[in-house]
Design a protein that fits this description.
Blueprint (H helix, E strand, L loop, with lengths): L2 E9 L3 H12 L4 E4 L11 E2 L8 E2 L12 H4 L12 E5 L2 E4 L5 E4 L3 H9 L3 H26 L12 H11 L3 H8 L3 H13 L12 H8 L1 E4 L1 E2 L4 H13 L3 E3 L4 E7 L2 E7 L4 E10 L6 H5 L5 H8 L6 E9 L4 E2 L10 E4 L2 H12 L10 E4 L14 E9 L10 H17 L2 E2 L8 E5 L1 H7 L37 E3 L13 H13 L21 E3 L4
Parallel strand pairs: 1-2, 1-13, 2-10, 5-22, 13-21
Antiparallel strand pairs: 3-4, 5-9, 6-7, 11-12, 12-13, 14-18, 14-20, 15-19, 16-17, 17-18
Helix pairs in contact: 1-9, 1-15, 3-4, 4-5, 6-7, 7-8
């Protein structure tokens, strides 16, 4: 049986796994990364899905939360110096409504407030008050969201603001939006943002999202030039530059355990990759019981069994002859993000998902045209589109029902999109690829049940409860086995934090000073992200 040995074996080559591998390799540890697919990137992968020359982000596209991480803010891994670049957008999103009206959300809160003032002076002020509230709550949120689970509050966190933040977490996003805003247009807009991070807005625990999500998008949606794969490729270069090895086409069949300790991984072809000092998994933690094949604590097994994935996604990728423009009350406008949202439509969608049915009236949609700010993704003058909505994983009780339903539902979504824009003819589409929640899970099992964020990001599945209470610090029930990826805290969007924290946990346990690669006193020097005002295009 073929065998390979290194200090650390990393399972998966998504961005969190690569972040961790890069930090570990920089300390002199030998690192082997195993990727099941023939391409690296995991959730940050860019592929020709529809037609030659059209490069689509298969999963994640916008990376605004990466700016919170020293991986970018301090360029700790040298990926910016190595050529990785980002571009932002303004306006952030345009929401056209079916009656011909619209709301445009700008990076400048005052400009967005002016948009809302057309419908309600109260709502215009409520938006400005929300941003003022964010200024007070940001230190609390950052401690909770990006620090290691259970970390002590930063010294400058006011206990009163912490209590205010906790009070938000005791509400649902639906309730918070309805408490703050009175017009249907403002409510539709502010519900769109927590839905953009694919969370169940009717669930208690999501009440902070209407404040924290739009406030964090101060660079717009922030795309990597060349596609999301560029993040993974630059991280991989750093791993290799420091002696690491990345093996593709290496799907892990089981995690090796000897003497109650994880010692490596065996791939489907029978090759054993031994990890002398640790094994780091980025597969979804719910896969661990079957991959380990040894008894695990009942509480851990129960946590995996009862894990709530959150809503699944349907994604329609399109190759188009030109970039479409959002329809607004003042005329068509170029916008990277075009949204569909209404109070009734969101309520109907949440009800349909709970009943494992399709939404057939005014579905929430996030529609992205990255070629407005990154034309390198398509042949000259042409464009890529991504139309996303939320949907149940099991359709009418059975996930396999998606195979027969997805194309017809994609037709419906494309027709809905056509009503939001000008310059788009569904019959002129040059190529299409549809991914149902089941397709998403099949393509990348880390997207458990076709959900985007590794699991619902609510208090009982975050912080010290992610993935399971008692195993929240990236250390799994088997000695020598560590966890990263979206099912580890803080989960969800592309941020690199699960990777950085997991690397730190491994280094601490190996008694290697993590400050060598994560200096505590280094100043932030965030990159200058160019912002393209697409309304001028």
């Amino acid at each position: 049986m073929p065998t390979s040995t290194s200090d650390i074996v990393v399972i998966g080559a998504g961005h969190n796994a690569l972040v961790a591998a890069a930090y570990l390799a920089r300390t002199g540890l030998s690192v082997t990364v195993l990727e099941a697919r023939d391409v690296i990137g995991g959730g940050t992968v860019t592929e020709e899905l529809t037609a030659p020359g059209f490069r689509h982000d298969t999963f994640s596209t916008g990376h605004p939360w990466l700016m919170t991480n020293p991986v970018l803010a301090r360029d700790e891994l040298g990926i910016l110096a190595g050529g990785l670049s980002y571009v932002g957008n303004d306006p952030v999103v345009v929401l056209p409504f079916k009656d011909g009206s619209s709301v445009t959300f700008w990076r400048d809160p005052a400009r967005t407030a002016a948009e809302l003032s057309r419908y309600s002076a109260h709502d215009a002020q409520a938006l400005l008050d929300l941003y003022a509230e964010w200024d007070r709550l940001a230190p609390v949120h950052m401690t909770r969201a990006v620090s290691e689970p259970g970390a002590a509050p930063a010294p400058d966190v006011d206990p009163a603001f912490a209590a205010q933040y906790d009070a938000l977490r005791e509400k649902s996003a639906w309730q918070d939006v309805h408490d703050r805003f009175e017009s249907e247009q403002a409510r539709a807009l502010m519900l769109w943002f927590p839905l953009a991070v694919v969370q169940p807005v009717d669930r208690v625990g999501t009440g902070h999202l209407p404040v924290t999500v739009p406030s964090a998008w101060n660079h717009g949606w922030m795309n990597a030039i060349g596609g999301s794969s560029m993040l993974a490729e630059h991280l991989a270069r750093d791993v290799v530059a420091h002696g690491g090895r990345i093996v593709t086409g290496a799907r892990v069949a089981r995690i090796l355990v000897e003497g109650e300790r994880a010692t490596g991984a065996q791939t489907e072809d029978g090759t054993e990759y031994r990890g002398r000092r640790a094994v780091l998994s980025s597969m979804h933690f719910t896969d661990l019981p079957k991959k380990l094949g040894v008894p695990l604590p009942p509480a851990f097994v129960a946590g995996a069994k009862n894990w709530r994935a959150g809503p699944g996604l349907v994604v329609v990728h399109l190759a188009v002859p030109e970039n479409p423009r959002a329809r607004t009350h003042a005329g068509p406008v170029a916008s990277v993000l075009i949204g569909q949202s209404s109070v009734a439509g969101v309520a109907g969608m949440m009800d349909a998902i709970a009943g494992e049915r399709l939404t057939e009236r005014d579905p929430y949609m996030l529609c992205a045209c990255s070629t407005w700010i990154d034309p390198s993704r398509a042949p000259d003058g042409m464009g890529t589109l991504k139309v996303i909505t939320m949907a149940p994983y099991a359709l009418d009780g059975d996930p396999t029902n998606w195979d027969a339903a997805k194309e017809d539902y994609a037709d419906f979504l494309v027709d809905e999109f056509a009503g939001l824009v000008e310059g788009f003819d569904p019959t002129a589409v040059l190529g299409r690829c549809v991914h149902s929640p089941l397709d998403i899970e099949r393509r990348n099992p880390s997207y458990y049940r076709g959900a985007a964020q590794g699991g619902e990001m609510v208090p009982d599945q975050m912080g010290l409860n992610r993935p399971v209470a008692g195993w929240a610090h990236y250390r799994m029930p088997i000695a020598g086995l560590y966890q990263t990826g979206t099912s580890a805290h803080p989960g969800g969007p592309v941020s690199g934090w699960p990777g950085r924290h997991a690397a730190k946990a491994i280094l601490e346990d190996l008694q290697i000073d993590w400050r060598r690669v994560m200096p505590e006193d280094a100043p932030d020097h965030p990159p200058e992200i160019p912002i393209i005002d697409t309304s001028l295009l």
